[in-house]
Design brief:
The chain has 242 residues and is an alpha/beta fold. It is built from seven helices and twelve strands. The chain is globular.
Length: 242
């Protein structure tokens, strides 16, 4: 059995009970860069660890090789855990990995993880929805493949007051802020960048679409971007003190 498992956003205590159970049972754990390395300490003696982490501009292993690595390990081990930061189905390539296993008649289960899209803003005191302010939120990739000829992001649809959460978008922050201003959002519209959310290294920068690029210079990855009036609630709700 292969378990495509969400590791959550960073705080080890946000790992689900089911995820912890299969990690303790695993014969091999195939893990990425965004999974808290402390989680591996919960594995049994003799568990094999395979690192397949990816960073912007540097891939230890391309996705097709990761798929094959999971498959090959499934042929040799009873319990394989593919440990992924956040949730496997929120920009986590879990669908691709599951499809690859399905085509090869390998049994698998999905263990959802708490996605950074809601947990990281929460640890920064920013609710993604709030009555009277935002009745919905969107989660958007901040990093599309450079091989795409046209973007799949419908920028014109972001004109309302939904909360926008961009994952993996720090290197494209200038483009994101400019695009939102181009479609009519004010330069004074609230924007925040949250780095290493839910961990002891968490850092939050709050500004506007007009100044967020300058304010967040030097902030480390991983980081996500939040755009919306809900950011103004941070003064009341910033509970996570480091």
């Amino acid at each position: 059995m292969v378990y495509l498992t969400g590791a959550g956003p960073g705080d080890i205590e946000l790992l689900t009970i089911k995820a912890l159970r299969v990690i303790k049972e695993a014969d091999v754990i195939i893990y990425d860069r965004l999974a808290n390395p402390e989680i591996l300490q919960e594995a049994k003696n003799g568990c094999k660890f395979v690192y397949v982490g990816k960073e912007d501009g540097h891939h230890i292993m391309p996705q097709d090789e990761i798929n094959e690595t999971i498959y090959q390990n499934s042929l040799n081990y009873n319990t394989v855990v593919r440990l992924k930061g956040g949730d496997p189905f929120v920009f986590g390539r879990g669908g691709e990995e599951g499809g690859y296993l399905f085509d090869r008649d390998v049994k698998f289960e999905i263990i959802p993880g708490i996605t950074s899209a809601i947990s990281v803003p929460a640890y920064a005191g920013i609710p993604v929805t709030h009555r009277g302010i935002a009745v919905s939120f969107r989660v958007i990739t901040g990093h599309e493949s450079p091989s795409k000829k046209t973007s799949q992001i419908d920028w014109e649809s972001f004109k309302g007051d939904d909360t926008l959460v961009f994952l993996m978008g720090l290197h494209n922050l200038t483009k994101i802020s400019n695009k939102l201003i181009e479609i009519g959002k004010s330069k004074n519209y609230p924007c925040a960048v949250i780095s290493k959310g839910t961990t002891k290294e968490q850092k939050t920068v709050v500004g506007t679409l007009g100044n967020i690029v300058e304010l967040s210079k030097g902030i480390p990855t991983p980081a996500l971007i939040v755009v919306g009036k809900v950011i103004e609630l941070r003064e009341q709700l910033n509970w996570f003190k480091i």
